[in-house]
Design brief:
alpha+beta; 8-stranded antiparallel beta barrel; 10 strands
Length: 267
């Protein structure tokens, strides 16, 4: 990746930091097609011993059940992974979407509140304050305005990145196998730009036309490169505006990130 780094000169980080950032964002892509079916409790139960990431802030203004409040409380106070996983297990069966996704449910900007198996996909998110960036996800009209239609994007900004935002985007379509899942498609693009709506031109660092090419850039094994596209399953999705919660997982595909679980809040 040295040739790539030679053309990537950012004032806020060294070449080694850029390489770490590149690997971080490449790892969190959601590429995908389902090759097996998982139950919601099965994916949660299999990860209770995995490290987790707690986000800095959240907004719990959304009307909610006691199970929802237990989850938010656990994340807010930095409870241990087993406690948060127990709260997730109790909340997911109450999924307001009933496993049926719609464009309106996902549309907008979502901030990552918490994740498990974070060491498999985002080492920068494990940095201490004030260096740790915030992580965002963009769907629908918000994503279209920044990275094009029928695409989903991830973003890291703040912390050591300052006002810059690192964008990782890919194609997206509803899964043909599971009504609660999204199939993530090439091309995969890693770009540097500004926050949504800034109008800053994005500089493209990686443009991979296939899952295998993208995983090769991310230093995946030959077996991982040959794995099917990832299935990004939504386990729990609230409707409404700001404050809505969403719980999701990588259900299949790249073996390095399969099983990762995320809790996002809509902004």
């Amino acid at each position: 990746h040295e040739s790539m780094l030679q053309h990537f000169s950012l004032p806020f980080c060294s070449k080694m930091t850029v390489l770490a950032l590149l690997l971080t964002l490449l790892s969190i892509s959601f590429q995908s097609t389902v090759s097996w079916s998982i139950t919601r409790r099965a994916v949660l139960g299999s990860l209770t011993s995995t490290p987790f990431l707690v986000a800095e802030t959240m907004n719990a203004s959304q009307p909610s059940s006691s199970e929802r409040e237990v989850l938010l409380s656990a994340i807010t106070r930095g409870a241990d992974d087993a406690t948060v996983m127990d709260a997730l297990t109790n909340l997911i069966p109450l999924d307001p979407s009933k496993g049926k996704l719609s464009e309106d449910l996902l549309d907008g900007e979502w901030k990552l509140l918490w994740s498990i198996k974070a060491e498999a996909f985002s080492p920068l998110l494990q940095l201490p304050r004030p260096f740790k960036p915030a992580s965002y996800q963009y769907f629908g009209s918000t994503a279209a305005a920044e990275v094009g239609s029928s695409r989903v994007a991830q973003g890291l900004t703040g912390g050591l990145l300052g006002q810059k935002e690192i964008w990782l985007s890919s194609g997206v379509t509803p899964s043909e196998e599971n009504s609660s899942s999204l199939t993530i498609l090439p091309p995969f693009r890693l770009q540097v730009g500004g926050r949504p709506g800034s109008g800053d031109t994005k500089r493209t660092l990686v443009d991979a036309g296939s899952d295998a090419d993208f995983r090769a850039v991310n230093v995946r094994s030959k077996d991982a490169q040959a794995a099917p596209r990832n299935e990004y399953q939504q386990l729990y999705v609230e409707g409404g505006g700001a404050g809505a919660l969403r719980i999701s997982t990588i259900a299949s595909g790249d073996p390095v990130i399969v099983g990762a679980i995320f809790v996002h809040e809509k902004l």
